Amino acid sequence: PDYVFVHESRIKEFIETVQVKFKQMYGEKPEGSELQGKMINEFHTERVGKLIEGAGGTLVCGGKVSKELKHIEPTIILHPDLNS
Questions:
Q1: Which of 25, 29, 40, 55 gives 80 a disulfide partner, CB atoms 3.0 to 4.6 angstroms apart?
Q2: Closest CA to 73 of 9, 21, 26, 3
Q3: Model pTM?
Q4: What is the DSSP letter of 58?
Q5: Is the pLDDT of residue 32 over 70?
Q6: CA dihedral in degrees (32, 34, 35, 41; nearest 10)?
Q7: If residue 72 lies in a helix (H) or strand (E), which one and from where to where?
């Protein structure tokens, strides 16, 4: 999903649970997982990386971009700019 709405009373629980699920699904090095899709090319990898950088808010986890591997870590941004 592009975004998830979480009640403010459950944000901490949501973030902790999602981080555990990311590790269960993709392991400690998600860029090496065959289960996680990659970006189609370096252009789009860079484009999405810039969207993450320009989102505002607080980067809680992920956000690492590898153009060479065409990979972007699963990312959680708390309270991004709604116009981003």
A1: 55
A2: 26
A3: 0.81
A4: E
A5: no
A6: 80
A7: strand 71-72
